[in-house]
Amino acid sequence: MRPLRQAWRAVRILLVSQMYPGPDDPDLGAFVAQLEGALEARGHELERAVLDTRAGGKRRYLTLARRARRASRRFRPDVVYAHFLVPAGLIATLVSRAPLVVTAHGRDVRNVGELPGIRLLTRFTVRRASTVIAVSEYLRRELETRVPEARSKTEVIDSGVDLERFRVEPAPDGEPAFLCLGSLTERKNVVRLADAFARLGAGTLTFVGDGPLRSHLEGRAGVEVVPGTPHDEIAGWIARSRVVCQPSLVEPFGQAVLEALACGRSVVATRVGGPPEFVPPEAGVLVDPLDVDEIARGLETAAGLPCPNLVARAAAERHDLAEQARRVERVLERAARVG
Description:
about 15% strand; single chain; disordered N terminus; 2 domains; alpha/beta; 12 helices; Rossmann fold
C-alpha cells in the first residue's frame, strides 16, 4: 500500500467486529481487515476485539463482549469503531464510554423488524452513536426508514477496493468464463444463476464459496464449485474470468462486484440494492434477480463487452480504498474530538 499522509494526530481506535478473517474462515469480513490496514497506514493506532470464525453460535457474541471489555479497559480508546449495528455496535455501547462510530453493512439493517427485540436494540445503538456509516445510499434509506433516529447522523461510505491488489489483467483465452463469488445461499441467488447459465450452452461458470445450496450446483454441465478461499486469492480468480456475476436477491453494496470492476471485468449484478449506484452501463448489466431469462441475457451481453474493460476500472477507481479510509478517518476524528 502506498504511503498516505499523516492525520492531524494519531487517534486510538478500538475496532469491534463480529466478522474478521481467521484461520478457519479466511474470507470472513475481509472488508473490515482491509479498512483497518488502511487506517493504520494513515498513522492511527488500532486495537481489535473481533470474532474470526463463524463457529460457536450466538454464544460467540459473549466472547466478543468479553474481548471488547478487556480491550477497552487496557487500550483506553479515543473512539470505538464497530462494524454491524447489532451485536457488535450494541456491545461497543455497553463496554466503553468512548465515542462510538458504527458501520451498517446490510444484514444488521434487515434484521430490524424481522427478529424479535432487534429494533429496540438497534435504536439504542444508533442513539448512542456519534455517526452511523452506511455502505450505500440504498442501505441508508433502508436504515432511516426502519430506525428514524438514524436520519440526522448517517453518512454513506462504502468499504472501498484496494486498487493495488485488484489490478487490470489480460483477458483469459477460450470460451467465456463466468465467476460467482460468495456464499451459496438463497439470497445470493446462485440456483437461478446456474439455471440462466445453462441456457447459454457455452462457456464455464465457477462458484467460489460454500453454503447450503452447494448440492444444487454440483454436477451441472460446465459448472465448477470451489470452496471459499482467502481474500488474497480472489483477485486471481477474477483474473481467470471474463464476467463476474452477482445477481443477488438484494445486495446492500456489492463488494465482489466492485473488486471485479477494479480488475477490468464486466459484471452481471442485481438491480436491487447498491450495484446501480456504481455500475455504469458500459461496465456491466443490471438484472431483475427473479427473472432467469433476463439473467441469461445479461450473461450473454456482459460476455460481449470488452475484456479487459477499462470503463469498469475507471468506475472502481472512484471507490479507492485509500480515499474511503480518508473519509472514515474524518468521521472518527470528528467523533473523538467532540467526545
